[in-house]
Amino acid sequence: MKILVVGLDCATPELLFSDERLTNLRRLMEAGCYGRLESVIPPITVPAWMCMATSQDPGSLGVYGFRNRVDHSYDGLGIVNSRSISELAIWDQVAREGKRSVVVGVPPAYPPRKLNGVSVGCFLTPDTSKDIYTHPAEIGNDINTLVGPYPVDVKGFRTDNKDWLGKTVLDMSRKQFEVVRHLMKNTDWDYFQFVEIGLDRMQHGFWKYHDPEHVLHEPGNPYQNMIRDYYRHLDEEIGRVLELLTDDTVVLVVSDHGARKLDGGFCVNEWLIREGLLVLNQYPEKVTPFSKLDVNWDKTRVWSEGGYYARVFFNVKGREPRGIIEPTEYERFRDEIKGRFEATTDPEGERLGTLVFKPEEAFRHVRNVAPDLIVHFGALSWRSVGGVGYPTIHVQENDTGPDDCNHAQFGSFVLASSNNPLQGEIQGAHLLDIAPTLLELGGYDRPQSMQGRSLVSGLEVSATAPAGYSAAEEEVVRDRLSGLGYIG
């Protein structure tokens, strides 16, 4: 069986499954199974897509977000790239069995992955007009001939110019789908995966216009249908893709996480200063990013990186250059700070419902330099603002530009194939279950490194490759080995 994966970054089940106008998706849902898909902690594009592809959690990959500590220094943050993750992915297993893959826009994908087939870079590609963004490199020339300069993202999508944003995202998506169809028709492939990033950009840019529950929603605004209309655009593009398939194809439409309204920003380092855990030599006169603060490391115990979630770090003696937390006090102190984060409140003094995770409890393995704590403020209804200089702990403005939504823990999946024994809505699926499921449906072996379970395990699956010897076949082989002297 061939395998096609259409990744819709940030697709939320509440919208994907409820709109009867999404006729192509409804057709897939009726032909197979679908449901909410629990993402990893944290539910962030990087590393979530590679967690899906490898069936390994972020700790096992050693990647906890777009930027990760490369050592225990105070400024040692490195931006993730395709070489940051070396674990076996689903397309590697396909190659092991002599088959070819096409992988388009699966982040992180720069530099372009060298795989058995074709790879095309993602939104982390600096400039497709200057940099080699495909493997083989000449594929980039074909793409440029087809659509002109290939757009991997919308630069400056955090903007108040919503007319420009909507048009530019739609134009990018149409060009990307044109490239996908071209590669499907003109490239030899057994596994094909594409991640569409435009939906994520649309939801971050237009959620307050779409969601009546958003704190900044304006009824009757001119953009209230932008997000639902974009889902219809995606459905139409998926329909054109489906027309190119044969019946012997496993089809998966999937998201890495969902989306939810953003109530505001929680100024995490501002809060740490007020809690006496982060000490500055001089408080800034204006809002200042953490990297530019004058930190007194001899007195600081805790600091944090901002983003959709907070990565919290401790200044541990013998680990950090000027650490002051005694290693013997580390666990007691961490439990204390975890409790203080969990007790954080909203502007009215009500508990936010903040979730706090210890890496070794959230992940099977903890590799590279992990945060000491991972914090989801308000269960991701509040983002983490890393800058200092705000007059209050809670803010509506965002330190990276206008942003209307945060990520949600549950994404979506729709799975259809002629040999899929599952039908209707499925409960309890996890992002790490996707790769083992696809490999089983496609008739491939499952690598031991994969941590998820196959959703079709134990069910009757008509695969293209034998699962092993039948009783009669085993007897034939046993007799042959016995005759050769290998067994007695």
Folded structure, characterized:
The protein is of the alpha/beta class and 488 residues long. 48% of the residues are buried. Strands 1, 2, 5, 6, 7, 8, 9, 21, 22 and 23 form a ten-stranded mixed β-sheet that branches. It has a four-stranded antiparallel β-sheet with strand order 14-15-17-16. Strands 18-11-19 form a three-stranded mixed β-sheet. Strand 14 and strand 15 form a beta hairpin. The protein has 14 helices and 23 strands. It is globular.
The low-confidence runs, each spanning 5 or more residues with pLDDT under 50, are 463-467, 480-488
Strand content: 15-25%
Helix-and-strand structural type: alpha/beta
Total helix count?
Answer: 14
Q: What is the total tally of β strands?
A: 23
State the helicity in percent bands. Answer: 25-40%
**Biggest sheet features:** 10 strands, mixed
Radius of gyration: 24 Å
- Give the end-to-end Cα distance, rounded to a whole number of Å: 39 Å
Average pLDDT confidence is 94
User: What best-fitting shape do the alpha-carbon axes yield?
Assistant: globular
What brief labels describe this structure?
alpha/beta, 4-stranded antiparallel beta sheet, 488 residues, 10-stranded mixed beta sheet
